[in-house]
User: Fold this.
Amino acid sequence: MSAAVIVFPGSNCDRDCKVAIERSTGEQVEMVWHQETELPSGLDLIVLPGGFSYGDYLRCGAMAVLSPVMQAVKKAADDGVAVVGICNGFQILCEAGLLPGALLRNEGLKYVCKPIGLEVTNAQTRFTAGYQGRREVTMTIGNGEGNFFADKETLARIEGEGQVVFRYLENPNGSVDDIAGIVNEAGNVLGMMPHPDRAFEADLGSADGAILFQSALASA
Assistant:
């Protein structure tokens, strides 16, 4: 199995993701700088990490979409490679049109960072199959613009198609329908605001995030 983490200027969870995947799965992870125009061959998983790409100028993720590597990421996603965007990575995926909706300022207009309970809304995806029927997991959030929004038509579609993967048990940011994570129609692109990379070992307070990385690679 092969995985890569994309590194943008301002990413600050890139090494967290590398360590989390390697310790969770035993696989080596390559770091790919945003100016690269090609990805390593044979990838089974691509991760867009959390952080503040390009300082969150214009809109969170808006400038990162223009990085050369994103064309290769889009092609890999179109080819069925598993792609996970975490926090800022989720924002980038929405800006890139790889996922529907948008991430707005938190309802309370404050940065929120704390452990959070999640409902595994759809356990039949390549990212959640490893939870094996568990309905509740714990991860950590850390965002100021994690308020997921979609228009009524889009929301009805993603709800009806089972694209909502995670919901907040207690909504920390005002996200519509308590949505914390969604997949694309093909099921190979996941965006989520909570950080599985901050919840991959019991010493961190939860090891539930490790299961997500294990599931993503096991399904390759």
Summary: The two ends are 8 Å apart (CA to CA). The mean pLDDT is 96. The helical segments are 14-25, 69-78, 88-95, 152-160, 208-218. The longest helix spans residues 14-25.
